[in-house]
């Protein structure tokens, strides 16, 4: 039998098919080789043959974007009077190019130094002296010989060896006065960052210097004639105690915020706000820097193209009335007692809007009697303030339902509890004057023992002679503080000024439970004058805690160069939430403080003030310089009007404890003359 035929088997390979594959590969490989040869040849031309040509082209027209300074925003008072403006003076500036060598700066500094003389008090560091000194080839060779360096000229090691030697043997190397002047200019240039602008000279630049530099600045890359702005105070510099200060080109950016400011695009010698309003509103006041495109050709000549003219900073329009501010400060100066008194502080504001009319402070050196203006002490200095807190204590009793306007009678009597010395009201030292008091009468007579009994009720206890405070929970401290904070006591007011403090809170451990008695009438925690003013305003406006503010509005310009005014809105930070009867009892009590015919009324020194005022006085016992003193305090307002005030005078001898009313009376007179009269005239 025949075997079946295989269908498969080797296929026949067409002739020439294998021979065509190597040909294709060869062609491809040939093309690749030719391309590599061409690329290699091009690289040789770029890196060797044409290297100098292209380096010249790169450096022949280097351009950079530089920033120019603009005027800082102005500051006006509530009447439109300018308080802070800018004074411009011509200056010589230097903007460091993106790439420049020490030798290049040396040459520019020498050119500039031939026409610009810096102040003699300008100092130069040893390191910069050494770096300038060795830029001269002749001097460098002499230093190299003296130092014995083996490093090759032009290397980093060579420079390090020479500068180190000059620094260590500076007395051996001298410069002429003219060379030293140029070295100081070199120092300012070298200390600049790439593309940042520094002032080579900003004060007392002569017209001759300006002319000489101006006509040659195209040959001095980065050097130009500019403007240096400083703050100017047309009405005097006393307002700086409230508005604050700015840095200078010499002082540079504040050390505590230099890194943050540099990341925001500031130069090291830019002017920035360093305190108070200038610092708080820095972003508004600084404006936007201009931008200039500077192109430098191969000959070192520069041309400029203005890309953006810049935008001056926004203007601040304050709630402060400058005349009133000055008068309040003078009132404090004229009435501050001597002895151990450490200061006098006052704040006057609008209880409806929170706008501050005046915030004045005088610090007194008790040893010398020297007085210093310190307006910000109203927010960064706290004192025990005494009985002015009693309206808040009584309101806290109302809010916690331990007393009511209809049932508020408590007997003023010496408070004698176990382990604590007797505590009394000023007019009932031995108990012979015991009498029942309603809440409003307790305010009028400034009864200490009334509010102490309210505090005990807040802790769930009723007073009886000889009682123990052991059952009294320490939570009573927090209950009182929560009530006080409704008015702004013991918490930040939120005013638009940096550095505000809350004051100190005393300890609240079981061992300190007796201090709860002191807390109830203002003898324990401390409060700022601004807190007292916010407290007075909260009572005056019916129970709304308004954020105080010094800036009323901000005026700036938009892209179409039109003025745009942003008004600071009235902000309610919280409410007391009392009812009409509770509020009226507090108002009645504060009215009686001033206008009652009782000999016990504590604020009758204000009864002649017109329009009539309501008030609460305070006298906190303190020790100053080892002597028994008091803090004389006052909160007050004109019912249904736009004014409330607070006064604090710490360290007063008891014979001068009524200075609070004397100051308050004078402030009201100034307010109606300066603020309301000027407002009426404006209308």
From TrEMBL:
It comes from the Bacteria. One of its GO terms (cellular component) is plasma membrane. Signal peptide: none annotated. The chain crosses the membrane at residues 21-41. It is a single-pass membrane protein. One of its GO terms (biological process) is cell division. Gene3D superfamilies: DD-peptidase/beta-lactamase superfamily, Penicillin-binding protein 2a (Domain 2), Penicillin-binding protein, N-terminal non-catalytic domain, head sub-domain. It is found in: Cell membrane. GO terms for molecular function: penicillin binding; peptidoglycan L,D-transpeptidase activity. Residues 68-305 form the Penicillin-binding protein dimerisation domain. InterPro entries: Beta-lactam/transpept, Beta-lactam/transpept-like, PBP_dimer, PBP_dimer_sf, PCN-bd_Tpept. SUPFAM superfamilies: beta-lactamase/transpeptidase-like, Penicillin binding protein dimerisation domain. Keywords: Cell cycle, Cell division, Cell membrane, Cell shape, Cell wall biogenesis/degradation, Membrane, Peptidoglycan synthesis, Transmembrane, Transmembrane helix. The keyword Cell wall biogenesis/degradation applies. Residues 345-668 form the Penicillin-binding protein transpeptidase domain. Pfam families: PBP_dimer, Transpeptidase. Belongs to the transpeptidase family. This is Cell division protein FtsI/penicillin-binding protein 2. It comes from Weissella bombi.
């Amino acid at each position: 039998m025949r075997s079946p035929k295989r269908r498969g088997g080797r296929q026949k390979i067409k002739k020439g098919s294998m021979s065509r594959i190597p040909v294709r590969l060869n062609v491809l490989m040939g093309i690749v080789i030719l391309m590599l040869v061409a690329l290699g040849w091009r690289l040789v031309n770029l890196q060797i043959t044409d290297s100098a040509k292209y380096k010249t082209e790169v450096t022949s027209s280097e351009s950079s974007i530089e920033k120019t300074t603009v005027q800082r925003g102005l500051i006006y008072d509530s009447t439109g009077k300018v308080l802070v403006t800018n004074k411009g003076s011509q200056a010589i500036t230097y903007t460091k190019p993106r790439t420049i060598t020490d030798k290049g700066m040396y040459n520019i500094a020498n050119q500039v130094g031939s026409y610009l003389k810096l102040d003699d008090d300008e100092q130069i560091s040893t390191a910069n002296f050494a770096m300038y000194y060795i830029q001269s080839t002749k001097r460098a060779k002499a230093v190299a010989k003296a130092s014995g360096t083996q490093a090759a000229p032009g290397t980093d090691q060579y420079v390090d060896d020479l500068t180190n030697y000059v620094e260590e043997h500076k007395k051996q190397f001298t410069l002429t006065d003219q060379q030293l002047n140029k070295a100081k200019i070199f120092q300012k240039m070298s200390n600049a960052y790439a593309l940042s602008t520094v002032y080579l000279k900003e004060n007392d630049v002569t017209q001759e210097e300006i002319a000489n530099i101006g006509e040659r600045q195209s040959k001095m890359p980065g050097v130009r004639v500019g403007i240096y702005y400083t703050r100017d105070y047309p009405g005097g510099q006393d307002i700086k105690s409230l508005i604050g200060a700015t840095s200078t080109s010499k002082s540079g950016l504040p050390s505590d915020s230099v890194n943050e400011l540099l990341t925001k695009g500031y130069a090291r010698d830019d002017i920035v706000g360093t305190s108070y309003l200038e610092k708080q509103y820095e972003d508004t006041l600084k404006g936007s820097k201009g931008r200039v495109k500077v192109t430098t050709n191969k000959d070192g000549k520069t041309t400029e193209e203005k890309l953006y003219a810049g935008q001056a900073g926004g203007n601040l329009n304050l709630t402060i009335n400058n005349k009133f501010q000055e008068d309040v400060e003078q009132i404090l100066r004229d009435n501050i007692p001597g002895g151990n008194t450490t200061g006098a502080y006052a704040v006057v504001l609008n209880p409806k809007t929170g706008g501050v009319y005046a915030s004045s402070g005088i610090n007194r050196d008790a040893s010398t009697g020297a007085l210093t203006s310190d307006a910000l002490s109203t927010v960064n200095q706290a004192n025990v303030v005494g009985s002015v807190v009693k309206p808040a204590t009584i309101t806290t009793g109302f809010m916690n339902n331990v007393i009511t306007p209809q049932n508020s009678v408590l007997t003023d009597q010496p408070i004698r509890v176990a382990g604590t010395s007797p505590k009394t009201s000023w007019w009932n030292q031995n108990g012979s004057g015991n009498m029942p008091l309603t809440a409003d009468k307790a305010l009028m007579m400034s009864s200490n023992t009334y509010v102490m009994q309210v505090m005990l009720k807040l802790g769930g206890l009723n007073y009886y002679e000889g009682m123990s405070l052991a059952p009294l929970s320490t939570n009573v401290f927090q209950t009182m503080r929560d009530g006080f904070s409704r008015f702004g006591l013991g918490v930040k007011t939120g005013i638009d000024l940096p550095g505000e403090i809350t004051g100190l809170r005393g300890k609240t451990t079981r061992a300190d439970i007796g201090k709860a008695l002191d807390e109830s009438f203002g003898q324990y925690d401390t409060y700022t004058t601004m807190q007292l003013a916010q407290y007075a305003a909260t009572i005056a406006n019916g129970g709304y805690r308004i954020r105080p503010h010094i800036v009323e509005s901000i005026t700036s310009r938009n892209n179409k160069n039109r003025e745009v005014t942003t008004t600071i809105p009235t902000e309610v930070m919280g409410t007391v939430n009392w009812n009409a009867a509770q509020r009226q009892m507090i108002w009645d009590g504060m009215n009686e403080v001033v206008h009652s015919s009782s000999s016990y009324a504590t604020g009758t020194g204000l009864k002649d003030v017109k329009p009539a005022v309501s008030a609460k006085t305070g006298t906190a016992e303190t020790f100053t310089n080892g002597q028994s003193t008091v803090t004389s305090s006052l909160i007050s307002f004109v019912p249904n009007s736009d004014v409330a005030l607070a006064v604090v005078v710490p360290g007063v001898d008891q014979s001068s404890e009524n200075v609070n009313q004397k100051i308050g009376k004078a402030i009201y007179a100034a307010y109606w003359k300066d603020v309301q009269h000027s407002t009426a005239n404006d209308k």
